[in-house]
Amino acid sequence: MKLLPFLRPLLEAAAAIALMAVGLRFITSFFASKSRVYRPTFLRQFALAFWPLLCLGVGLPFLGSFFYIGTVPLYEQVLLGFITAVVLGFSVPALVLHAQYYARNLDTTLVFDPKQNILEVYEGRVRIPFGKSDLIRVERVTCQSRRMFWSNYNYIKLHLRTGEVLTLTSLLTRLDPVAEFLRNTPLEHQQRWFCFV
């Protein structure tokens, strides 16, 4: 097990950096006003990917045992295969969704303030002009299960009269208030096991 002494300092450093980032964000939140501009921030990504990354981090030492597969008895190989399937089955779908959402909304900025009746979407620095009357259809896609690591990943698609489709993912913000804001539009709610865009 030469892999463990090398892996432990990396995991400790990653945990220390994550703790410092969360601590700094917590302290600065006392001095900041509530934002109405949403982007894929580190803290939002960390909140969504925490459990899948933790599961993968716990399972990685077991996955390192595959290098010694010839010296391991058969029952341990079966147990190792089962643990690998569980770890990858829980973490990989969430990480794939996270990567897909990040690629989709990397340059997207959402300006949302329901009290002021503001919903604006920017791609890069360009504002996509639309109003509620320009929405032909709004798709709200959520996960069927509430207990899986990927159940917090969901999205809203705004279909405009121009034929353009704007996708807002949960990487930007919680989408429940946005869906509530759009309740008087032609809103279609769908549930899927995996909310691939």
Write up what this structure looks like.
The structure is a single chain. By secondary structure, the protein is α+β, with helices and mostly antiparallel strands. The protein has one domain (33-197). It is built from four helices and eight strands. Strands 1-2-3-4 form a four-stranded antiparallel sheet, with no helix packed on it. Strands 7-6-5-8 form a four-stranded mixed sheet. Strand 3 (118-123) and strand 4 (126-128) form a beta hairpin. The radius of gyration is 21 Å and the shape is elongated. The two termini are 40 Å apart.
The biggest beta sheet reads:
4 strands, antiparallel
Going by helix content, strand content and strand pairing, the class is alpha+beta
Mean model confidence by pLDDT: 84
**What is the overall shape?**
elongated
Write the layout of secondary structure elements.
Blueprint (H helix, E strand, L loop, with lengths): L2 H27 L7 E2 L3 H22 L10 H32 L2 E6 L4 E6 L2 E3 L6 E9 L11 E6 L4 E5 L6 H6 L5 E6 L5
Parallel strand pairs: 5-8
Antiparallel strand pairs: 1-2, 2-3, 3-4, 5-6, 6-7
Helix pairs in contact: 2-3
Protein name: PH domain-containing protein
Organism: Hymenobacter taeanensis
Keywords: Membrane, Transmembrane, Transmembrane helix
Which characteristics define this entry?
alpha+beta; four-stranded antiparallel beta sheet; 4 helices; elongated
